Amino acid sequence: DWTSYLPVDSEPEFCLDGFFGKVSYGLTDRCMVSAGLCQDMWGFGTKITLKESKVLDWGMAVWVDFSSFEGKWSGFGWEYFKSQVDFYAARIAIGPVYKNDGLRLYGGPFIFWADGDGDLIGKYVSGEMPLDVRGRFDVKREFELGGYIGMSVGLLDNLDVRVEYQLASDLSIFGAGLSFKF
After folding, report:
1. Is residue 41 part of a domain?
2. Is there a domain that residue 25 lies in?
3. DSSP labels, 106-167
4. Which tens digits make up the pLDDT trace of 109-155?
5. Fewer CB within a 10 Å sphere, N or C end of the chain?
């Protein structure tokens, strides 16, 4: 295991902080398709209204992200370390949306999974003996259940502010943004 050469508290983590842009198009009043872009990631998805009423709607969302990125670092005895990771991650969510004037509150469960692979190459120096490291690894997340909660507030006729939080056993995502309707 290549991580055994790292100090105990420095096993690599994936942290995908960054900006995200998304364009959506309403196919019907109850179905919207979207495509998004985020630094080293792109994705697409859909939102469907399953049941509609004046105050409470029920909906479903499906989203798939694809990513390919490279990383480089050194330190902790590593002269250099490079990696390339390619993977996809998918989520299916279902839940209610409470509506009151310009306020929308929503939440519910989601199922999440990911699959992909990566390559790494590096040189680890231990005493006087350098160690060349090459490896291939899998990025895999079996089906995992999580939850989400969010809010959208209409500021103007064509402008909403949104915040959302998603949580699973070791997945924590917070997002905030503006939605422009045109």
Report:
1. yes
2. yes
3. EEEEEEEEEEEEEEEEEEEEETTEEEEEEEEEEEEEEEEEEEEEEEEEEEETTEEEEEEEEE
4. 999 999 999 888 888 887 778 888 888 888 888 899 999 999 999 99
5. C
Distance CA 36, CA 31 (A): 17
Q: Is 131 in contact with 125 (CB distance < 8 Å)?
A: yes
Residue for token pair 């050469």:
5
Query: Model pTM?
Result: 0.73
* Range of the structural domain that residue 108 is part of: 21-180
> Residue 101: is it exposed, middle or buried by C-beta count within 10 angstroms (0-12/13-18/19+)?
exposed
- Sign of torsion over alpha carbons 68, 121, 116, 112: negative
Decide if 109 contacts 94 (C-beta within 8 A): yes
For residue 145, what are the contacts with CB-CB under 8 A and spacing of at least 6?
109, 110, 111, 112, 168
CA 65 remoteness from chain centre: 7
Domain count, the chain: 1
Q: pLDDT tier at 181 (50, 70, 90 boundaries)? A: confident
Pairing of strands 78-100, 56-75: antiparallel
